[in-house]
Specification:
Helix content is 16%, strand content 25%. It is an alpha+beta fold. It has one domain: Methylpurine-DNA glycosylase (MPG) (3-methyladenine DNA Glycosylase, Chain A), CATH 3.10.300. Strands 1, 2, 3, 4, 5, 6, 7 and 8 form an eight-stranded antiparallel beta sheet that branches.
Length: 214
């Protein structure tokens, strides 16, 4: 990423200003629609040291009846948060290496969710860098595992209501998102042709191969 883009990100991080918590009524009650809606919104963690926040720039929807979804075979103790009312966190450990965070997307009892794949950091850069062990802005939260690590999100937050008072929540942004692209999802082996991945076009913080970022 060039110096101009870096300067822009550092400026955004220093002037995010007040962030309004999203109300559940604002969240579409359809997982694919929610995945697109969340592009440009803010994920906030009010950490004990400082506020950490990033603009959501990439999501994937895992819809009702989707064979690639964790909820496909029904409710279990591990995936039960996916069956909560839309706007709750589903946090799981993947590949024995890192955590990933989803937002539940349907009505209570219906299992589906939106994977948060990438953030553009806007607040708490020092904490993000410390959590990730790197100062490289571009890679702080590009990819679901990096995102959760940068935001200090783990199973503590599984089931958290992201629309209610609490340390981890979803916020509105005063900055309008750019053009939203869509593509097939990344790293799955089932339902591979469904275009359920959404991203802010030409945003350097979006993950995946170049052909899936433009």
């Amino acid at each position: 990423m060039g110096n101009a883009s870096t300067a822009k990100t550092e400026h955004a991080a220093s002037c995010i200003g007040p962030v309004r918590r999203l109300r559940r009524a604002e969240l579409p009650q359809d997982t694919a629609t929610l995945a697109r809606y969340l592009i440009g919104k803010i994920l906030v963690h009010d950490h004990r040291r400082e506020r950490i926040a990033g603009r959501i720039v990439e999501t994937e929807a895992y819809v009702v009846g989707d064979a690639a979804a964790h909820a496909f075979r029904g409710r279990t103790p591990r995936n039960s948060s996916l069956f909560l009312e839309r706007g709750h966190a589903y946090v799981y450990f993947v590949y024995g290496c890192w955590f990933a965070i989803n937002v539940s997307g349907e009505s209570p009892g219906v299992g589906a969710g939106v994977l948060l794949r990438a953030l553009e950091p806007v607040a708490g850069l020092e904490s993000m860098q410390r959590h990730r062990g790197t100062h490289r802005l571009l890679d702080l939260a590009r990819g679901p595992g990096r995102l959760a690590m940068a935001m200090d999100v783990d199973r503590r937050f599984d089931g958290a209501d992201l629309c209610a008072p609490g340390p981890l929540w979803l916020g509105a942004s005063r900055r309008r998102p750019g053009a939203v692209g869509e593509s097939v999802r990344i790293g799955i082996t089932r339902e591979v042709d469904r275009k359920l991945r959404f991203f802010e076009r030409d945003n350097a913080f979006v993950s995946g191969p170049r052909r899936l970022r433009a």
